[in-house]
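Hi everyone,

Forwarding the result from last night's run.
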Amino acid sequence: MPDPKPPETVDIGARKADHIALCVAEDVGFHGKTTLFEDVELVHDALPELALDEIDLSCSFAGKTLRAPLFIAAMTGGTAKAEGINRDLAVVAEALGVGLCFGSQRPLLVRGIRDGYFVRDVAPTIPIFGNIGVVQARETTTKALADMLEACGADAICVHLNPAMEVVQPEGDQDFRGGLTTIARLVKELPYPVVVKETGCGLSRKVAERLVSVGVKWVDVSGAGGTSWVGVEAKRAAASQRALGERYWDWGIPTAASVAQLADLGLGIIATGGVADGHTAAKAIALGATCAGIARPFLQAQARGLHPLREAVEAVIAELRLAHLLTGSRDGDALRRADLVVGARLQRWVPRGTTLAGRMLG
């Protein structure tokens, strides 16, 4: 394996600040590709025999309990701008009983930059997940990662896979060998749950089967159709790399398709990638996800203040609750058994003979 880039050659804080600015204000969504959630219809139950307040939205993920099946998904950290953002996100997550995922903790691991990663004082009880790239994990001892998680009070680590983003990124990695071996080491040695996630390009069934084979139990599909992180890096790149990023801006597996591909593999699944509201989150859960993750809409809400952020998260939870009522689903397990109408484009992604295929009407 080649030696990692010397940390002094990479201005990590500036990169993270660029990411925040681009995600808040720029058009970094997919150009043409969608999540394919528009191909999912939940079937209305006019006789639900439920009261709205008896619906149980709680769920368990990676050994931690959530009052609602929602994570404020990985966005930022490692820059002064992230401190106030992540503290606001943590305050709201604690108040509403949802989870919080840090953005990449490479700045903390490599440079000791603490901004945005120490929020346990305002969020003592909720699940908080750390985050590191598989390339950085490959080059880091298990103990160093465990020490990092302990220091910031994290409950689990997300190991992110992002080859498309890295190759377009001006300072990005180019060598992705040893990823599965690294993940297997962490599953075996790390005294924390390991969640494997993508960063906007989705996880295929074949990749998930390889992850299961080394003991992975939890994933975040982070599919295509929401924020294009290839697009984010294309906006930061020089001319030649920008052209490459433009060509691959829409690369990836749609989020709904990724969830459908993984639904019967026994994994706990977070569905992120273009999930912006509770109705879409309910569709993801109905397809087989354990919970949903929302990133950019909450980042944009936080830019308007703490109150708008809380209102945005509360709205998602209210929409989730109503979707349960209108499908006659008392809890998440019932929603995952509910009938679905699935359009032709998404049907092409659903493996034949799976439980999900048997629930589709028509």
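The radius of gyration is 19 Å.

Cheers,
N.
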